[in-house]
Specification:
This protein is of the alpha+beta class and 432 residues long. 51% of the residues lie in helices and 10% in strands. It is built from 13 helices and 8 strands.
Length: 432
């Protein structure tokens, strides 16, 4: 028999499935009521039993030398050969003597002493969690048909330790630490004396926990995905509702522009919504332009440009791209701006030629004024000059037109390009 060796014990955790150690048919350990425990979940675990060890039974003997076996038993005991090796250990020889004479007082007394030593050895093994050697020694005692408390001790210790290992394996599995759960199960499987049914039931118990955890994680992921899909659906619905209701860029916080900016994912959905909003913005820009609302037309078009309208094609297979529509709106905006009449102060004058006082008006001591409307061209010159009002009429018109023809200005720039711009001026004629 080897000396006790130290095994690391495993911490106890949660409850364990019902564990009952039962004996094998050959009369081995009986693991009954006190070995029961219940695991979380209520599943019954297959019975636990100590497996039979190959051990020579003591055969019936006829006439033989009892004293010779007693001497052999004492020599084996003195040499600490209590239960090993097979057929040459103290328990074996004492069993032979008692088989021949069950009332042999000396053999009974010496056997009791050897069993006491065995019990102490078992306790020493258990004290350092050396269940392997404790089990072997207890199994040898039981094999020789000796009834002794150490058999119950090792039965309970092995039952408790197996229960602790199963409890810890289940705890690790529930915590998601499958590596540790597998390691503990491996320790459990290496225990001597556990039935294959119990080991299989223990592994199945842990597998069921892992499967339940995996299913729970999958359900959680599916729920999260459903919630994310609903959030995207609600977002898209808000954007489209604002578009269909004409709330493209106003009011603040409740417009398609604001809802679209509130979320960036999923990218494909945002791309689709952006295209829908751009189409609506260009359409609204054209409608505003047709109704003469240049401010809104420009505002819609500007935001469409910010959204990248030049790279978006019209949905539905229309051959005309949004770029073409944008260019059309842009041209109409420019035309509308060119026809708008600005004040002279909106221009930077380069050269101003004073009007000549007409001789006829000067001779008659007549003063007055002339309002002229003209176009400042992209080169800064004046054209399309016309008199719209004068007081008095037909006295100063010609002089005013000739003066304006000589004026030059810095050309007007609008939306990044030079344009022809209409403006008006009043020329006043007064005698000094």
């Amino acid at each position: 028999m080897t000396q006790p060796k130290e095994y690391s014990s495993v911490p106890i955790a949660i409850g364990i499935a019902s564990v009952i150690l039962v004996s094998a048919a050959s009369g081995w350990f009986l693991f009954k009521g006190d070995a029961s425990a219940h695991a979380g979940g209520g599943d019954d675990v297959a019975p636990l039993q100590l497996a039979n060890l190959t051990n020579p039974s003591v055969t019936a003997v006829g006439h033989y030398d009892i004293d010779a076996d007693l001497r052999k038993a004492r020599l084996a005991a003195d040499a600490d050969l209590i239960a090993t090796p097979p057929r040459r250990n103290a328990l074996y020889y004492y069993a032979r003597v008692l088989k021949a004479d069950s009332e042999h007082r000396l053999a009974i007394a010496e056997t009791a002493a050897v069993l006491a030593r065995s019990s102490q050895m078992v306790n020493d093994y258990l004290a350092v969690d050396n269940y392997e050697d404790a089990y072997v020694l207890a199994a040898r005692v039981s094999a020789h048909r000796f009834e002794h408390p150490l058999v119950d001790s090792i039965r309970k210790a092995l039952t408790d330790y197996a229960a602790e290992l199963l409890v810890q394996a289940r705890e690790f599995a529930e915590a998601g630490d499958d590596i540790q759960a597998t390691a503990v199960l491996s320790n459990l499987e290496q225990l001597s004396g556990l039935s294959t049914e119990f080991v299989s039931a223990a592994r199945k118990s842990v597998d069921e926990i892992q499967q339940a955890r995996t299913e729970a994680q999958q359900n959680k992921l599916e729920e999260e995905q459903l919630a994310a899909d609903k959030e995207v659906s609600d977002w898209a619905l808000k954007v489209r509702d604002a578009i269909n209701s004409g709330r493209l860029i106003t009011p603040e916080g409740d417009s398609a522009r604001d809802y679209l900016a509130a979320q960036d994912t999923p990218a494909e959905t945002k791309k689709q919504l952006t295209e829908e909003l751009v189409v609506a913005l260009v359409s609204a820009s054209r409608q505003s332009l047709e109704s003469g609302d240049l401010a809104n037309a420009e505002s819609y078009l500007g935001f469409a440009n910010d959204l990248g309208a030049d790279a978006i094609a019209i949905p539905g297979g229309d051959s005309e791209s949004l770029t073409a529509l944008l260019e059309s709106v842009e041209s109409e905006l420019i035309v509308a701006e060119e026809t708008r009449i600005l004040g002279l102060s909106d221009f930077a004058q380069v050269n101003t030629v004073p009007a000549k006082y007409p001789y006829r008006a000067q001779r008659r001591d007549i003063s007055g004024w002339v309002d002229v409307l003209f176009t400042v061209t992209t080169s800064g010159e004046t054209t399309n000059i016309e008199v719209i009002r004068a007081d008095p009429e037909n006295f100063f018109d010609g002089s005013a037109i000739r003066a304006v023809q000589k004026w030059t200005f810095q050309p007007r720039e609008y939306r990044g390009q030079l344009i022809n711009q209409r403006t008006a001026a009043r020329l006043v004629f007064e005698l000094e």
